[in-house]
Design goal:
The chain has 5 helices and 9 strands; from the N terminus they run αααααβββββββββ. It is α+β, with helices and mostly antiparallel strands.
């Protein structure tokens, strides 16, 4: 698999980079035109990707903006998309992060041991979405108590007193998406 972006992908990035660089310097197109000797309409077409960038245009523009050319034409950095999975353990539960960012929603794979069956209801801000990968999940939500099987999903507002754990003898594996601001993620499974 080639990790390098294509030339077309790099060229696509030039127009918005030029606009951002000009706006960061708080210059109008007319001011940049006066500083470079390039017409306002040509600069406008260059910033809107309606004109193909050339060194003849880019060199005076970057010089007038006081930025290096490679800031405008460099290929975007490609980061390794794999998430470092460092599991944490608490009370027999294993929590594996599946998302890298600290922003929300956050994704986790949760393994709950079969002996984790005693409800301890709690509340907190946010919204949670659960998808059972393997096993059976017991969910207690307020005064309701129900089972979610493999291939099924549940979602709820976390301000409602809730708890979830194993239902039955074996452990349960769950995908969990959680967001403090109450992102609503809907997933519906077909009934068998």
């Amino acid at each position: 698999m080639d990790d390098q972006p294509s030339i077309d992908a790099v060229i696509e990035q030039i127009a918005p980079r030029l606009r951002r660089a000009r706006e960061k310097k708080d210059l109008s197109l007319a001011e940049l035109a006066r500083a470079t000797g390039i017409s306002t309409s040509t600069l406008s077409r260059l910033e809107s990707a309606q004109r193909k960038p050339s060194l003849e245009l880019l060199l005076p523009v970057t010089a007038a903006l006081g930025i290096p050319l490679d800031e405008i034409v460099a290929a975007p950095r490609i980061l390794d998309p794999r998430v470092q999975q460092e599991p944490s353990r608490k009370n027999g539960r294993v929590l594996v992060p599946l998302s890298r960012q600290q922003a929300e929603p956050r994704a986790y794979k949760l393994t709950i041991p079969g002996h984790d069956t005693e409800p301890h209801l709690r509340t907190h801000a946010g919204h949670e979405w659960l998808y059972v990968l393997r096993g059976r999940l017991r969910v207690q939500l307020g005064d309701r108590d129900f089972i979610v099987g493999a291939g099924e999903a549940a979602e709820f507002e976390c301000r409602i007193p809730h708890w979830f754990g194993a239902a039955g003898r074996g452990s349960v594996e769950v995908l969990s998406l959680f967001g403090k601001q109450g992102e609503r993620i809907h997933f519906h499974t077909a009934r068998r």
